[in-house]
Backbone:
């Protein structure tokens, strides 16, 4: 091991470990992955992994936290408070699908594997998904207000719209990865159109009662 590696700041070293762990966990799965393999991919010693992150469970949890943060930032960075609601929602969906398409290993670890491992990992994934939903819901609620206090749709319908869109996005990610001919932009169009139709019908039904 070189002296240059030893002088790396702790935060840089941790990111190297997490990078390697995402790669190994996505390829081998949580149970089959070993700390030895992760250390080898990261170019460090096995004891250093334990010193920095404590255990394989701690390493997997660190992967979930970091990849969830990256996903939330990807959505948050494209959403603007003054965007029309349809545009803001489309941009949020596009960022979501684009992140997954460009970070497939991240998605495999964050959703496909962590969801099936039970506690505490499934709770971490649920919290990450809730953060994304909160971002999009706040954007839709704010974006459907009108000057003077009126609204295009009610706050409850705005929340429903956000949940329809994010639920569809969540369910369609694996399909997107299996259909390379579909782009994040075109899939965002499909999801938003279906979500808006659903809200319009629900609003019309409520008005008819």
Residues:
């Amino acid at each position: 091991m070189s002296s240059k590696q030893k002088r790396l700041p702790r935060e840089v070293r941790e990111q190297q470990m997490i990078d390697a762990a995402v790669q190994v966990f996505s390829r081998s799965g949580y149970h089959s992955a070993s700390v030895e393999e992760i250390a080898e991919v990261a170019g460090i010693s096995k004891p250093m992994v334990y010193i920095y992150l404590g255990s394989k469970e701690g390493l997997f949890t660190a992967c979930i936290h970091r990849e969830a943060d990256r996903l939330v930032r990807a959505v948050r960075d494209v959403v603007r408070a003054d965007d029309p609601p349809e545009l803001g929602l489309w941009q949020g969906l596009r960022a979501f699908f684009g992140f997954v398409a460009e970070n497939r290993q991240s998605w495999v670890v964050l959703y496909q594997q962590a969801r099936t491992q039970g506690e505490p990992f499934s709770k971490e994934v649920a919290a990450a998904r809730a953060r994304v939903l909160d971002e999009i819901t706040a954007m839709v609620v704010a974006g459907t207000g009108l000057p003077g206090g009126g609204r295009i749709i009610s706050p409850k319908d705005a929340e429903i719209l956000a949940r329809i869109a994010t639920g569809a996005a969540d369910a369609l990610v694996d399909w997107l990865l299996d259909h390379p001919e579909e782009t994040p932009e075109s899939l965002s169009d499909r999801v938003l159109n279906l979500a808006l139709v659903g809200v319009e019908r629900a609003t019309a039904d409520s008005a008819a009662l």
Remarks:
- Residues 60-208 form a domain with the Tetracycline Repressor; domain 2 fold (CATH 1.10.357.10).
- The chain has a mean pLDDT of 80.
- The two ends are 73 Å apart (CA to CA).
